[in-house]
Structure formats: C-alpha cells, structure tokens
Fold each of these.
Amino acid sequence: MGAARGTPGDDRPPLPYRLLPGLRRPGHRRPTVRSAPGAFGPRAAAVTVLRGDYHLSDRNLVRLLADFLGLPISLGSVVTLQQTGSAALAPVYRAIHTAVQQQDRCNIDETGWKEAGKRRWRWTMVTAIATFFYVATSRDGPDLRHLLGTAYRGIVGSDRHRPYLALAPERHQLCCTCTSN
C-alpha cells in the first residue's frame, strides 16, 4: 500500500510544516520550519538509499529531489532517510550473506577507493544465486574470513592476493586471467 496520506515522495501533497516554538522573531519573515517526523514517503526514502548507483553526493541528492520531484528536503533529512533505509534492509543483507556462504563455489574480489580521504575496500562475493557486497577498511585476511564465514567449505575463485593464498589449495582456484600472468 502507499505511505500515510500526505507524505512527500508518494505523489501526495506534503504535510504542513510546523513552527518550532520560540524561534520566530518579531518582524522575521522566514520562520524556522521543520517537517513532521516520518514526513517522507517510501519513494523519497528509496531515492536516498539508491543514490550510490548514480554517484550523487548527499548535497546533489538534495538538489535532485528539489529540482525534479519538487521535494524540499534538508541534508540532515537525506542522511536520516538513508540510515532508516539501511536499517530496513539489514535483515535482507544478512540473509544474502548467509545464502552466499552456503554455496559450493564462489568468486571473490576486492576493489579499493577513497572516501573522505580514507581508504575503503568493497569486497564482492559472487555465487550462482546472489552477489554479496561488503565494505571494509582493509583487504586483509580477517575481512576475507568475515566474507566467507568460518564454516565455508566450497571452492573460492580469486586472484593471487595474499589472503586468498591462505586458503587450502583444494578449495582455491585462480581465475584464468591471473594464471596467465
């Protein structure tokens, strides 16, 4: 069903803004406003969670929502919606992680990038039924063990990065491109 009546992002008129008591000064034309808690619908929340696919900063997302959807939203509300969306997706994320750990074979790789000047690594575990992504601060053995879990007994396809070489030889297969180097 849709969101509650009057929630932006659900093609309905927005809830009226509420003035914060004591913040309106005499002669001040623009009152300080705040939207009611939960004032944004599921479409607005989905757009904030999916912003990574379009490589938008949070500030550019605020502009996109205002320019294309006519939805005035603050930077803080965008971050709150992202956190709410992430929390809502957490059980699905854990279920996918569990499912890929139960497969008899997978391919794993990691890719680095910088975020706010700090190095991050996106680990990817691909199986026949799902692909799982995990963001970490390193590309070392503990992150590989987190990705695979302690009970993983399948075959891992990967490159020659050192943590993979610690896998038992009968459980590790090098990718074809990596064997030709």
Note: The chain is about 35% helix and 20% strand.
Amino acid sequence: MNTTNLNRLKVVLVEQNKTGKWLAEQLGKSTCTVSKWCQNTVQLDLQTLDSISRLLDEQIDIQEQIKTDYDHIQSQITEIESELLNDTMDMESPRYKELIRMDDSLQTAIFTMYDYEDLKTFFENNVKDEMNKYQYQNLMLELEEYREK
C-alpha cells in the first residue's frame, strides 16, 4: 500500500534544532514511540499533537490535518476497492474478507480522529463538490450515526 507522510514532526524538530529524545523526555514517552511518529509508521492522536505544538510553538491547522488524513484514507480505500474489483479474486478467500474489513474500518477511521464539528466543516468545504448529492448525504448520515454512538 502507498505510504504518505501524514505529519511533519521530523521536519519541525530539525527546523527547531530539537531531537526526538528531547521530545520524548518532554512528553514522558519513549524515544521509540517518538521515532515511529517521526517516521510516520504510527500516527499520534490529536491531544498529543496539540501538546507537541505547544512545546514547539507550532500552530496546528485542524482543517489541513483532516484533509491530509482524509486524502490518505481515501487513497487506501481506492487501492483496496481496486483490488476487490479484480475479476480473479474469490469472494470467499481470506484476502477478500480482510480487504472488506479494512475498507470498513478505514471509512470509520476518520470519524474517530476528529471532533464532529471540525469534520462537518471539512466535509462541507472540501468534499461536497467531489461527490454527487446522494454520496454526500450518505456521508453526512454516517457521520451523524457515528456521533450518536
């Protein structure tokens, strides 16, 4: 699967002459965890991202972060769906079932990462024009349903 850098943590640390070890000490995290964040192998949660931004005096643009995450998840979904549409794939195969599970979890992942109002604003400003009216209404219904859980 295509890997895209989802955060600029490593770049910001270098720009500010800080190390991963320094950041780990400030946050009370292991250097291994910070290294994974810097390499984009593991993504940090918004609370930690906010703490880091305060330590590094960086402003977080939540709408830009949502766009980055949303685009990344959509590209993963597209890859999965193109593999699912492969004529040679057996619908009973373990790989097919795994891809369906991944597709479902990715579709709800974006809902778990951000506040409802931030997501609603993002969808209204960025996604609405990319989808037909029916797709957009379904997306907003899914967001409402997730909010009620």
Note: The mean pLDDT is 78.
